[in-house]
Amino acid sequence: MAGRTRTTKKLAQRINLNYFKTLRGIPRWRRILSGVLVALGVAWLGWYALAGTPKPYNAGPVSHTHTLIGGKCETCHATQAGFEHSATDKACLTCHDGPIHHAEQTFSPACASCHVEHKGAFRLAATTDEACTQCHADLAAKDKNAPPRFVSNIRGFDGTHPQFAVLRSGRIDPGTIKFGHQVHLKKDLRGPRGPVQLQCADCHRPPGLNQPWPFSIAQIAPVSLSAALPDRSYMEPINYEKHCATCHTLQFDRRFSESVPHKEPKVVYDFVVEKLTGYIAEHPTQIPLVDEPDKRLPSRPPQPPARNAREWVAERLADSELLLWRKACKECHLESFPNGNDALPVVSKAAITARWLPHSNFDHEAHQMVACAACHAKAPTSKETSDVLIPGVQVCRDCHHAGKEAAEARCFECHNYHDWTKEKPPVGKFAVSQLGK
Amino acid sequence: MRIDHTHRPWFVVTLIAAAVATVVYILYAVNTPTGPRGGSALGLTFGILGYGLMLYAGLIGARKKVPTWRIGRGQTWMRGHIWLGTLSLLIILFHAGFAFRGPLTTALMILFFLVIASGIAGAALQHFVPSVMTQRVPMETIYEEIPHVRVQLCEEADKLVASICGPMDADDTEEPAAAVTTLVEIEQGDKARFREIYLQQVRPYLADPEARQADLADPLRSTQIFESMRRLLGGQLHGVLDDLENICEEEHQLSRQIRIYRWLHGWLLIHVPLSIVLLVLGGVHAVMALRY
Predict the structure, then answer these.
(1) Which phi and psi angles does A132 have, rounded to 5°?
(2) Which of A50, A371, B43, B187 has a CB 3.0–4.6 Å from the CB of B38, allowing a cystine?
(3) Coil, strand or helix: which one is A189?
(4) How many CB atoms lie within 10 A of CB A246?
């Protein structure tokens, strides 16, 4: 038996020449799958198109504050002329005002160029540093011939942010109240009810804190009965009645336990006259009596007995004025006597600085885990009012710097772009039904 | 297609284009305050460029459909498909700023990764598997012809056996009236045994070569079976047995060819349909992104 042979002719003869006209196996399934998958994709988009929602084209989850309108694309992507539905500044300004940054700014960026939506649940105000440094890295005012008012080459907080202006220029505290932190932080300071050790927080307290001063006597009432939580961002400026009066009383005469009001000299003067006049009217028998010398007053020749109530009041008024203008008030205030030594003094304004860094925001509450002196390092040893005790920029940089394990160090953490003092709140236009379910 | 030295120019051009695009993207990303976005001028440029590359890569399907078009050699198209298609992923990632974002764009990116991954797997298979096919399937035929060839092989085997034992549908006890003339007389006992063995073992396998329970489907077992047949049957039948064994061997190779073919082309079941969906949905994304 001859062996089986595979000649080209034999092989060619067994080929069906029409084989390519019919798809089989993988090519067939490739075509079927292509059709089915394209149909599924078109059906997916068509389903939403029929439902009238552009959800598939959502560019990503909206920020936390916009979640309410997250499913209502048309709220921001309003119909415009033609095909385009992009979100414009006009849509933003329907709900928000966007006051300008600065009168001298050279251009106003579009809202979306800084506040980028569809990037997930984070604060829209958390803009990138580049949004600020696109101008502040090479700050150019409208009037290029005008002298620069701000540092013009800030590229971030880590390296090029300058020292705070109040420290950089060697400024002093403009306050006129004579005060030394060192003296007030001494041990066993004389308090109204014995020795006290003052802590920073005894005087530096947020506004609206509904707690009495720890060393107060009865007349110091809680500053607020409101149940609202106080804003602990900033400390309330020091106030005589709240923080000083308990120890530094303004007694004007031994016959009276109450102090004079902590007001202008004329008010104080009228108060003393009224009190003395009223007293002697009730105690006329004391007119001829001579008072024991007051150790608090400078020694002076004994006064002759008064002959009538007017003389009695005039003599005691002179003593009270001496005690107040020349001793008690002078303890803290700067006084001058431009109208003569016998006239009422002129007291310089306290000029206590409420905010040292007016172009930035700070939150003491967010920093409450840090000891006061850790940042305000000079405070415990400060003897002069003129000492500026806010920490320098390097203290901030110890925590606020680049890196995953550092505190936020981008511009928005401290600075606002919009000048909210110029805000014109928009009038609401939406009904609840338009925003709710 | 083998990835050999002929790909070097494409590889170099792709590498240079990728390097330039990367430098441009880094400069763009660093100097864009709000981070890279597809809607920015440069983001759109990346998007248009990336989609253009994807379209070019997709056009290879059309090029194959009409091989008579005088628009470049098929091999050139395939090299461009491989390298520019891969480059398109990088360009589209630059367009997207490496973010998936919404439902459609997320779907597109997933599709894109699947297409590129299946394409890379396919390129690797196309590089290595054809040589395996050449070595292990010397009797290779056109894949689509395999069922047709198998029918013919079965008929050929039937004819071989009929030449010894008479027609297959004749009664077992009948004398093979139409037996092919042989030079050597074969004993009746051998013929009957041969016919019985063929009908019980060989023919069922040839009728359904993909049936796994058939002993002859295993090449090693097949060799053993035919050896035992040679011992059992007289030497006059060994020539026919050799031919039958050769037919079975061809069947083995066709089975092997099917398996290798599935490896060689199976990835296209993922790559091609997903590519088409990607191009369609990508076009929709381009239009709708401009709208919003």
Answers:
(1) -90, -45
(2) B43
(3) strand
(4) 19
Non-local (6+) Cβ contacts of A184 within 8 A are A198, A203
Strand extents, DSSP E, A18-170: none
Give the Cα-Cα-Cα angle B9, B10, B13 (nearest 5 degrees): 85
DSSP designation for A192? B
ipTM attached to this prediction: 0.85
What length is written for chain A? Answer: 437
Stretches where chain A sits below pLDDT 70 are: 1-2, 80, 121, 141-142, 210, 213, 216-230, 299-300, 436-437
- Residues A345, A337 contacting (CB under 8 angstroms): yes
What is the pTM (predicted TM-score) of this model? 0.70
Measured distance CA(B57)–CA(B165) in Å, rounded: 59
Rounded CA-CA distance B50/B95 in Å is: 8
On whether the CB atoms of residues A56 and B103 are closer than 8 A, the answer is yes
For residue A177 the two structure tokens come to 């109240």
B288 to chain A: which residues are within 8 Å by CB?
Answer: 54, 57
**Residue A224: its pLDDT value, please?**
46
For the record, the structure tokens of B12 come out as 């170099």
CA dihedral in degrees (A147, A152, A157, A161; nearest 10)?
-50
User: Cα distance from A331 to chain B (closest Cα, Å)?
Assistant: 55
Q: Which of B148, B161, B236, B252 is nearest to B203 (CA)?
A: B161
A15/B272 Cβ within 8 A? no
Distance in Å from the first CA to the final CA of chain B: 42
* Chain B residues with CB-CB distance to A7 below 8 A: none
Q: Is the pLDDT of residue B84 over 70?
A: yes
